[in-house]
Amino acid sequence: MVNNVYVSAVTQDNISRHELLAWVNGNLSSNLSKLEEMASGAAYCQLTDILFRNKIILKKVKFNPRSELDSLNNWKLLTTAWKEIGVDKPVNVEKLMKAKFQDNFEFLQWFYKFFNANCDGAPYDPVEARGGEALPASGKGGAAPAARPAVARAPLAQRPAPATTQPAAAATAAVVKKTTPLPSTKNGAAAPAPAKAAAGDKGGETAEVKELKALLTEQQEVAVTIENERDFYFNKLRRVEVMCTSAKEKGVQVDIDKVLSVLYATEDVPPEDEESIVDEHNENIQAEPEQEVEEPKAVEPEHPPAASSPVQKPVAATADDDEETF
Fold first, then answer.
1. What secondary structure, in 3-state letters, does the chain show?
2. How confident is the model at residue 297 (pLDDT cuts 50, 70, 90)?
3. What pLDDT, in 10s, does the model give residues 171-205?
4. Could you give all domains of the chain from N- to C-terminal order, each with its CATH number?
5. In Å, how far from its chain's centre is CA 158?
6. What are 41-61's pLDDT values in tens digits?
7. What is the tens place of the pLDDT at every residue in 130-173?
8. How far apart are CA 49 and CA 152, in angstroms?
9. pTM score, two decimals?
10. Who has greater pLDDT, 117 or 191?
11. What radius of gyration do the chain's Cα atoms show?
12. What pLDDT is stored for residue 323 in this prediction?
């Protein structure tokens, strides 16, 4: 029987993305380097197979998808199996397949707790289960591509050289030895011959440089991700701070629904100007007082016409009587 779990955005026991990646790679013997690679759905399919054996046919899973259709196939297999098992978690496949960090991070947070609530600790060989396929195929731990077989060539038949050519070759070699000067230094000592191992050292430097460049690129991606996370949560706090400050200056209560909508927003929202946030918040606060002022204005004009009509009639009648008297 499945144990469903529920996670909110304000849960205190969330773990970092580095711990989540280490947990996924440890369970699947994979080499995933960032959370966005979970967007293919392949890792979730095999993690579900660990919990509920034979509910997903792993032969149909595209562990290294080459197109969007392959990833869509993985998510279809996963959601169909979850429906049969009884998992009531809604899955926004279109949103997860965009491979945005925040969406995949929150979904993996939930799945981590779901996995721990349903795992029975039975032994499982992930590599054998997926047929020895590397995950991902371009990872450092993946299988190296098979070397191309060398084409065997028949040795060329050597023709016997005529006897007259041997003295000529010996004479040519003697001339080269005599005419080729040895490199010398200023002091007259012979300079050492260039080392042939330089080519080998150069090749070693190239491999090392490539490795350092790859490491630098990875560190740059991590730095960009951290900056995006920092800006994302800073924008939330700044908007809430501006709303609270505006409400304090007006002497009114903060709009709780507005604050919660800002805190629970999962999409990246561009930072707004403080004036626009204050104006928007003030409009919501001043909406009710304007309606209260308009109500008495509509009631006042109704009474004066009723009072004036009976007074005017006797005045008009008195004036007519005076004219007749004169």
1. CCCCCCCCCCCCCCCCHHHHHHHHHHHHCCCCCCHHHHHHCHHHHHHHHHHCCCCCCHHHCCCCCCCHHHHHHHHHHHHHHHHHHCCCCCCCHHHHCCCCHHHHHHHHHHHHHHHHHHCCCCCCCHHHHCCCCCCCCCCCCCCCCCCCCCCCCCCCCCCCCCCCHHHHHHHHHHHHHHHCCCCECCCCCECCCCCCHHHHHHHHHHHHHHHHHHHHHHHHHHHHHHHHHHHHHHHHHHHHHHHHHHHHHHCCCCCHHHHHHHHCCCCCCCCCCHHHHHHHHHHHHHHHHHHHHHHHHHHHHHHHHHHHHHHHHHHHHHHHHHHHHC
2. low
3. 444 444 444 454 444 454 445 554 444 444 444 56
4. 17-129 (1.10.418.10), 209-295 (no CATH)
5. 65
6. 999 999 999 999 999 999 999
7. 999 998 887 543 333 333 333 333 444 444 444 444 444 444 44
8. 47
9. 0.45
10. 117
11. 41
12. 47
Q: What does the alpha-carbon distance between residue 213 and residue 219 come to, in Å, rounded to a whole number?
A: 10
